[in-house]
């Protein structure tokens, strides 16, 4: 079994000079993330309204504790989704603006 020497190894292929992602990809990502943020906001709003109008009330303290914990997890997760999708949408929008601006010095 022979080992390859430095003279027999192939050089790495050159990398393309153009970026892989263009402005259209950033626009599509920002719009889809914004759509998901709006949908998540609707779900979060409906959860808050539902749990406000129908608060959990059970006679057993353990069941009441589990119901309140589940309510907190559901509402918190829905607002976390709103925040995450919104932040991703803003970031992709800023990246889109950055790619559309002319580069100085290059």
Topology:
Layout: H1 23-53, H2 61-100
Protein name: DUF3082 domain-containing protein
Biased composition (Polar residues): 1-10
Keywords: Membrane, Transmembrane, Transmembrane helix
Features:
transmembrane; membrane; DUF3082 domain-containing protein; mainly alpha; elongated; transmembrane helix; 106 residues
Briefly, what is this?
The protein is mostly helical and 106 residues long. Helices cover 67% and strands 0% of the residues. The longest helix has 40 residues, at 61-100.
Residue share in β-strands = under 5%
Q: State the total count of DSSP E strands.
A: 0
- Summarize the biggest pleated sheet: none
Terminal Cα span: 49 Å
Structural class: mainly alpha
Number of helices: 2
Rg from C-alpha positions? 25 Å
Task: Name the shape in a single word.
Answer: elongated
Please give the share of residues in helix.
55-70%
Integer tally of domains: 1
Order of helices and strands: HH
Mean pLDDT: 88
Flag low-confidence runs.
none
Overview of this structure, please?
The protein has 106 residues and is mainly α. It has one domain. The protein is 67% helix and 0% strand. It is built from 2 helices and no strands. The chain has helices at 23-53, 61-100. Helix 1 (23-53) runs antiparallel to helix 2. It is elongated, with a radius of gyration of 25 Å. It starts with 22 loop residues before the first helix and ends in a 6-residue tail after the last helix. It holds the Pfam family DUF3082. It comes from Candidatus Synechococcus spongiarum LMB bulk15M. Residues 1-10 have a biased composition (Polar residues). The chain crosses the membrane at residues 24-44, 64-97. InterPro entries: DUF3082.
